[in-house]
Design goal:
alpha/beta, GMP Synthetase, Chain A, domain 3, about 25% strand
């Protein structure tokens, strides 16, 4: 703070704010400004935005984006969100995160749509009321919010109707199949999952309105996006995997308009994110024979057990398909025989008892769905899971607490019991 010389304050007089620092009244300074201000000339490649990642795998990184990113915001608003001028659009993301700025502010302005802004914390009745009373037509939210609505129970939505709602999309973390069909039962519409990152600056892969949804899938690359599944060789080389249903890292051919242009003060880390004109996302995925991409997990989160590589999402999805489970998070814990075993942390829906009987039922349910090698060996019931303020589950924090390790950077962890759901990017 020693470098800060001035604070701009609203409805307060100029005054000293401490040694070497002065508070300046916003309105007094605005009255003194000339009504005519020159417009700075910019190019599509000039820096415009600095978005920080959510810190789920480590210290948040500052991704630098340029003015030309707006091209991607406009195009994806059409292709992935199906925005039209007469729409009433609600993006629930906080504008301090990349989704909230890119799709809560910039995209609706570019499309000229009416945009809903709500500053209050999550409340199921309030959210259903907004969808109904504001006649929302397109809703963009996050899995955390959807899971919280599911936990509130279907009866919470029974007093509300959404006749104008025509499209619902989700981003931030993978959306399990049960959540997709929950949308159909409760909202009258399935939920379209899509994928992108703070670094990509815009939606890259989506279950678009034009194609059938594959529940549990991220969708297919949007027009103009070249996505590859790649394998890392022991010699450091990277090769493209052409066969379907083979796990590898998701990579994107460089050159899309909203591609980030650097990490703030981390030039070496930025360069290591690229190889052979491809951006390496750090996400492990598979592509099926129809071209749909399926999320396996972050490379940092994959669990190695008895020769198996286990993606947390696969296990979490199986658990959340059980009618008692509201939310689940999975980590690997050390085991002298198999390397790691799967442990799940589970929150239960209202009306269910988190007891030994339910634990045994969930263990059996997971083994039946996944097989003994992949299913969790331990389940711990918790009141809540740690999330970032953008709504993502912090598995690394669960693992650090489980193993008694340093928690690392926790600057983005939520402080409120109900997270101000959502960000975008995984």
């Amino acid at each position: 703070m020693n470098s800060v010389r001035y604070f701009i304050v609203v409805d307060a007089d100029d005054n000293d704010a401490g040694p070497g620092t002065v508070s300046l009244n916003f309105w007094r300074r605005m009255d003194a400004v000339d009504d005519v201000a020159p417009i700075e000339v910019t190019t599509p490649d000039d820096p415009a935005l600095l978005h920080f990642t959510s810190g789920t795998t480590g210290t948040p990184k500052g991704a630098i984006h340029v003015h030309g990113a707006m091209t991607m915001h406009y195009l994806t608003g059409s292709y992935a969100l199906d925005l039209h001028p007469d729409d009433i659009f609600w993006c629930t993301a906080d504008p301090g995160w990349v989704t909230g700025m890119s799709y809560g502010v910039i995209t609706p302005l570019l499309h000229g749509v009416t945009s809903i802004i709500d500053e209050s914390e999550f409340d199921a009745d309030r959210w259903y009321r907004i969808l109904q009373d504001q006649n929302v037509t397109v809703w963009y939210t996050a899995p955390t919010a959807i899971r919280m609505l599911i936990k509130a129970g279907p009866e919470a939505a029974q007093d509300y109707r959404f006749p104008r709602l025509r499209f619902v999309a989700s981003v931030g973390e993978p959306l399990n199949p049960e959540a997709v069909w929950w949308g159909k039962r409760v909202l009258g519409l399935p939920i379209h999952d899509n994928w992108w990152q703070t670094e990509t600056g815009g939606i890259m892969i989506a279950n678009t309105p034009a194609f059938d949804i594959k529940p549990g899938s991220m969708g297919r690359p949007l027009p103009g996006v070249d996505a590859y599944i790649v394998h890392h060789g022991d010699d450091g080389s990277v090769s493209v995997i052409d066969q379907p249903d083979v796990e590898g890292e998701l990579a994107l051919k460089t050159g899309w308009p909203s591609m980030f242009r650097g990490y703030l003060h981390q030039e070496d880390r930025y360069r290591k994110s690229f190889t052979d004109d491809m951006y390496l996302t750090g996400d492990l995925v598979k592509r099926d024979s129809d071209g749909y991409i399926w999320f396996v997990g972050r490379a940092d989160d994959v669990i190695k057990s008895a020769g198996h590589l286990i993606g947390p999402f696969e296990v979490e999805s199986a658990l959340t398909d059980h009618p008692a489970v509201a939310e689940a998070a999975v980590i690997g814990t050390p085991d002298p025989t198999v390397g790691e075993v799967v442990k799940a942390f589970v929150t239960v829906k209202d009306g269910f008892d988190a007891d030994d009987g339910l634990r045994r039922e969930l263990l059996g349910h997971a083994r039946k769905r996944l097989g003994a090698a992949v299913a969790p060996k331990h389940i711990e019931f918790v009141d809540s899971l740690p999330h970032t303020r953008s709504g993502k589950i912090m598995r690394r924090l669960l693992k650090a607490r489980e193993l008694g390790l340093p928690e690392g950077d926790t600057s983005t962890i939520e402080s409120a019991p109900n997270p101000p759901v959502t960000e975008a990017s995984r």
